[in-house]
Amino acid sequence: MLQLPDSPPRMKTLVSVDESYKLCRHLTAKYAKTFYLGTLLMSPVKRQSIWSIYAWCRRTDELVDGPASAITTPETLDLWEQQLESIFAGRPLENYDVALVDTLQRFPMDIQPFRDMIAGQRMDLYRSRYETFEDLYLYCYRVAGTVGLMSTEVMGVDSTLYTAPWHQNKQPYLPTEEAIALGIANQLTNILRDVGEDAKRGRIYIPLEDLEKFNYTEQDFFKGVVDDRWRALMRFQIERARQFYTTSNQGITYLASDARWPVWAASMLYGQILEVIERNDYDVFSRRAFVPQWKKLRTLPLAWMRSQVL
Ligand SMILES: CC(C)=CCC/C(C)=C/CC/C(C)=C/CC/C(C)=C/[C@@H]1[C@@H](COP(=O)(O)OP(=O)(O)O)[C@]1(C)CC/C=C(\C)CC/C=C(\C)CCC=C(C)C
Ligand SMILES: Nc1ncnc2c1ncn2[C@@H]1O[C@H](COP(=O)(O)OP(=O)(O)OP(=O)(O)O)[C@@H](O)[C@H]1O
Ligand SMILES: [Mn+2]
């Protein structure tokens, strides 16, 4: 009898590149009003590539932070990392991955920041405290500094700055440190905004050494005590986050000219969350610091002006 070969593994039929970018766009618009607004200021090609990166980052974050996080184990993240390798090898496994594969063809990128992001999410599986700022910095680098590196590859640098005859070195300056700094600044802001939400899950991201410095205990934290010790501690954290914004803002001028407006916008909009925290008298336990849409829109012309002159 004729021996038929085993049927080949059934390949999942995936959506087209255009459809996949649409999915990524919807995910970005749904989850990130601030960053989505920033992407609308970009050129169409850069914009859709950022959506594909956003979608991958968000889905990575959801594995440990979303509704399905209860069933996420280290093995889930191992599989996710294998899926990442497959994306970088040009083989998308899911509909969202199709756009990222396309983006990687257009903007070749290093896989390491993507792996580091998974390592950062892994930390959330087994850590709920950070002793020192150095410990927290590593976490912030992994989950957010990496986003700065990925985004910079898409946004590109301004090479016209370096073609003048008096420039010895024609290599454009890569604002790597500044890109990482914006990720760190955003993540520190995010941590301060979400203190109450994280406390409900038994998590403290603020370094314990800082709590101690301000004589504020873990018990105070879980009771949501807002007093002068807490306010001083929060002022210290806000100041630290602002230093990272300052560093990052100095790098924006090196980006391609069409990327400066969206990045100024993202930096200013996210930075405004810190001002809202101050206005709320540092109560991040019972109130969520939130920037209304009209205020976000009002920031855009100011961001545009900065992108032209700074
Ligand atoms: C407009 C623009 C350029 C945006 C980049 C958008 C992008 C690809 C974002 C990915 C964000 C993401 C889902 C990361 C996963 C881990 C995570 C959740 C990090 C936090 C983001 C905030 O999200 P959100 O407030 O929605 O958090 P909740 O989960 O809802 O609590 C982070 C705070 C990290 C964000 C970090 C960045 C956007 C990096 C920014 C840096 C640059 C764009 C580089 C600019 C270059 C120079 C030279 C300054
Ligand atoms: N005061 C609030 N309390 C509870 N949830 C809120 C509050 N304000 C907004 N949300 C919800 O929390 C999520 C985050 O809102 P936010 O305004 O921070 O926008 P976002 O989409 O997270 O943008 P980004 O974080 O990029 O600024 C949204 O889904 C929003 O519906
Ligand atoms: Mn959000």
From TrEMBL:
SUPFAM superfamilies: Terpenoid synthases. Pfam families: SQS_PSY (PF00494). Signal peptide: none annotated. It comes from the Bacteria. InterPro entries: Isoprenoid_synthase_dom_sf, PhytoSynCyanob, Squ/phyt_synthse, Squalene/phytoene_synthase_CS, Trans_IPPS_bact-type, Trans_IPPS_HH. GO terms for molecular function: geranylgeranyl diphosphate synthase activity; squalene synthase [NAD(P)H] activity. Keywords: Carotenoid biosynthesis, Transferase. Pathway: Carotenoid biosynthesis. One of its GO terms (biological process) is carotenoid biosynthetic process. CDD domains: Trans_IPPS_HH (cd00683). It catalyses: 2 (2E,6E,10E)-geranylgeranyl diphosphate = 15-cis-phytoene + 2 diphosphate. Its EC number is 2.5.1.32. PANTHER family: BIFUNCTIONAL LYCOPENE CYCLASE/PHYTOENE SYNTHASE. Belongs to the phytoene/squalene synthase family. This is 15-cis-phytoene synthase.
